[in-house]
Fold this sequence. Notes:
alpha+beta, Alpha-Beta Plaits, four-stranded antiparallel β-sheet, two-stranded antiparallel sheet, 6 strands, 29% helix
Amino acid sequence: MKYLLMIYGNQEKWDAISPQDWPAEIAKQDAFNKKYKATGELIGAFGLGDAVTAKLVKRAEGKPVVTDGPYLETKEYMASFYLLDCESEERALEIAADMPWAEIEPVEFWPILHDAEKDL
């Protein structure tokens, strides 16, 4: 079964990490990614651009209408997401709990109920 893990952030969180600590934090995340890629359970890990680079896209009269920024009510935004393929939900939850910073910030966990790739 496939699962989606989401990490949220905001500029205040990123600014709280000193420039000297960034390399170590990135190394922790890289080690997590390599560990679960090697087991075949991590399908992909994707870091998103800053919220100021996000866009909203709608369709009007068959054409895209693009506006700036995410439609957010709070300062938190999705910073990255991870796709897992695990034998059980229990295993996927173990991996989510192993995410760097999981002791400080929760990891949002969603079972993926439909896999369009199987239909293509």
